[in-house]
């Protein structure tokens, strides 16, 4: 897809969860602006579909971000293929089940944290030294409005996303002076395949909380992310960007 805006010429972006939803639409936009992308995702079928749609500017890596060895290996492979990583967008995530805290299955609580928080930490941890070598980097961690407000019956998800916000604020400050910015976004509900993991009444609840009375669109997410992940966004780090149709006013 051609685009007259070319903010990503010569840039290589790693996008976790890049084969679907918000990550995929962001990959599409980066490629349309002249960049190349590595899609780090655990779904082989979706990776193949995404690569077919994005063409030669995309590269697929099948991995589970909750395994630090796989993240380390993917980082090394990406650097040996593309020479650098300019941009890291951490979009891989799961919702976990809808259940009250007293009923929450402990193994699923841990799985939500393993992917949403620990997996994101591993990606930040292994990619930061690559960016430091180049003196340039943009990291965007996809959190959620749930991490600011806490959604009922989604405690693991809400807590893991609150932790992503804390990690982002901490790392942003650590890297000031290295040419690397680290920011988070906190979307309200966006219509993507992740909604299939939720109960219909929970989705209705989340819609009822959005003053604009509609879900976000992946295009709107990609637009915000590709600005934060570009050179243009140079005076903001450790920050949290709202994209919630008016739900968050802080
Ligand atoms: P999605 O399900 O369309 O995409 C998520 C992708 O992550 C999938 O391709 C999946 O295969 C991949 N993934 C899941 N676990 C993985 C793992 N362990 N290792 C590697 N890849 C893995 O969902 P989406 O809506 O695009 O969600 C992207 C991010 O946005 C998630 O972190 C989600 O929590 C966050 N978010 C989504 C919404 C929403 O309403 N859609 C709202 C707020 C935040």
Structural account:
This protein has 250 residues and is of the alpha/beta class. The chain has a single domain, classed as NAD(P)-binding Rossmann-like Domain (Rossmann fold, 3-Layer(aba) Sandwich), CATH 3.40.50. It contains eight helices and seven strands, in the order E-H-E-H-E-H-E-H-E-H-H-E-H-H-E. The chain has helices at residues 21-32, 44-54, 68-82, 106-134, 145-149, 155-174, 200-208, 218-228; strands at 12-16, 36-41, 58-62, 87-90, 137-142, 180-187, 240-243. A seven-stranded parallel sheet has the order 3-2-1-4-5-6-7, with helices on both faces. Helix 2 (44-54) links the parallel strand 2 (36-41) and strand 3 (58-62). The radius of gyration is 17 Å and the shape is globular. The chain starts with 11 loop residues before the first strand and ends in a 7-residue tail after the last strand. 46% of the residues are buried. The model has no long low-confidence stretch (mean pLDDT 97). The structure holds nicotinamide-adenine-dinucleotide.
């Amino acid at each position: 897809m051609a685009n007259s805006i070319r903010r990503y010429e010569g840039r290589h972006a790693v996008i976790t969860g890049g084969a679907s939803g918000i990550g995929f639409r962001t990959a599409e936009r980066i490629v349309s602006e002249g960049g190349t992308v590595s899609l780090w995702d655990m779904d082989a079928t979706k990776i193949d579909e995404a690569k077919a749609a994005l063409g030669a500017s995309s590269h697929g890596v099948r991995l589970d971000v909750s395994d630090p060895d796989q993240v380390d290996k993917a980082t090394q492979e990406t650097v040996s293929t593309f020479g650098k990583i300019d941009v890291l967008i951490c979009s891989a995530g799961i919702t976990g089940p809808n259940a009250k805290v007293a009923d929450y299955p402990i193994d699923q609580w841990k799985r939500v944290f393993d992917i949403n928080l620990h997996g994101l930490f591993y990606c930040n941890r292994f990619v930061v030294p690559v960016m430091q070598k180049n003196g340039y980097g943009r990291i965007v961690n996809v959190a959620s409005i749930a991490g600011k407000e806490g959604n009922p019956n989604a405690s693991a998800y809400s807590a893991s996303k609150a932790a992503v916000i804390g990690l982002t604020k901490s790392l942003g400050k650590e890297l000031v002076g290295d040419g690397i910015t680290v920011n988070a976004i906190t979307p309200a509900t966006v219509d993507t395949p992740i909604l299939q993991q939720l109960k219909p009444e929970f989705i209705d609840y989340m819609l009822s909380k959005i003053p604009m009375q509609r879900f976000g669109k992946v295009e709107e997410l990609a637009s915000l992310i590709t600005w934060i992940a570009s050179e243009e966004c140079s005076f903001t780090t450790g920050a949290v960007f709202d994209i919630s149709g008016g739900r968050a006013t802080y």
